[in-house]
């Protein structure tokens, strides 16, 4: 669809579902499509969220360039990307220098944000009807992504969360029907997001890439 269409959370689910192969490889194409869908959704929440989505979008674009570039075969899966970049010394491990935008460090930022998303959606799914979306969002952020952000970003992000609509209105914006349908969709989607997150975390841990600058 077009970028101006509201989009449905279901597209995001389908993309993340299609990420993991039988060999437990993570396909970058669907991974980035899932992210694109998320960004579209974030933007539909209002201008205040474009601050949050802008950096993620820049990172998606870096990855899309790799995936359509001369070395696209190496960037088919997360596993082949790590193998390729590590073997060819394309990853800065101490400070950003020769390879400031390696695929490995770029995906690591998206990966950390995915943990936030996972906690947020899980909180939303299991919350009571009168819960505050902003509180769920703040708690999940503080439990995950916040530790990687400097004070000023934490402040701006937390301020943006206050603009989130009520729980039920938020579930409606997901465009999958009423709140009950949205909660059911989340229950279906979360295991897939968890699985992508878990495989990535394990892969990065094996290669000692979890602290890339
Ligand atoms: C409603 C729940 C939505 C979850 C969507 C996740 C999007 C998260 C993006 C947060 C971005 C905040 C501003 C940017 C900070 C960057 O410095 C930071 N990027 C991320 C994605 O955390 C680190 O990237 P950098 O500076 O090392 O290139």
TrEMBL record:
Gene Ontology cellular-component annotations: cytosol; endosome membrane; Golgi apparatus; nuclear outer membrane; plasma membrane
UniProt domain Glycolipid transfer protein: residue ranges: 28-175
Catalytic activity as recorded in UniProt: N-(hexadecanoyl)-sphing-4-enine-1-phosphate(in) = N-(hexadecanoyl)-sphing-4-enine-1-phosphate(out); N-(9Z-octadecenoyl)-sphing-4-enine-1-phosphate(in) = N-(9Z-octadecenoyl)-sphing-4-enine-1-phosphate(out)
Localization per Swiss-Prot or TrEMBL: Cell membrane; Cytoplasm, Cytosol; Endosome membrane; Golgi apparatus, trans-Golgi network membrane
GO molecular function, one term: ceramide 1-phosphate transfer activity
GO biological process terms, semicolon-separated: negative regulation of interleukin-1 beta production
Keywords, in A-Z order: Cell membrane, Cytoplasm, Endosome, Golgi apparatus, Lipid transport, Lipid-binding, Membrane, Nucleus, Transport
Bilayer topology: Peripheral membrane protein
Top-level taxon in the UniProt lineage: Eukaryota
InterPro entries associated with the record: GLTP_sf, Glycolipid_transfer_prot_dom
Transport as UniProt keyword: yes
Recorded family membership: Belongs to the GLTP family.
Record's protein name: Ceramide-1-phosphate transfer protein
Organism: Nothoprocta perdicaria
């Amino acid at each position: 669809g077009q970028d101006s269409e509201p989009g449905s959370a279901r597209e995001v689910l389908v993309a993340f579902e299609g990420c993991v192969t039988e060999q437990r490889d993570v396909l970058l194409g669907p991974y980035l499509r899932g992210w694109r869908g998320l960004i579209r959704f974030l933007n539909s929440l209002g201008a205040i969220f474009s601050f949050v989505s802008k950096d993620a979008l820049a990172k998606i674009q870096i990855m899309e360039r790799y995936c359509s570039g001369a070395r696209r075969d190496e960037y088919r899966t997360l596993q082949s990307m790590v193998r390729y970049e590590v073997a060819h010394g394309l990853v800065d491990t101490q400070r950003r220098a020769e390879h400031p935008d390696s695929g490995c460090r770029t995906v690591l930022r998206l990966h950390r944000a995915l943990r936030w998303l996972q906690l947020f959606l899980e909180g939303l799914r299991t919350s009571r009807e009168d819960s505050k979306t902003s509180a769920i969002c703040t708690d999940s952020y503080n439990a995950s992504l916040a530790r990687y952000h400097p004070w000023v970003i934490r402040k701006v992000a937390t301020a943006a969360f206050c603009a989130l609509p009520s729980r039920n209105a938020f579930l409606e914006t997901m465009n999958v029907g009423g709140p009950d349908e949205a909660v059911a969709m989340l229950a279906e989607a979360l295991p897939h997001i968890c699985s992508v997150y878990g495989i990535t975390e394990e892969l990065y841990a094996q290669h000692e890439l979890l602290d890339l600058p």
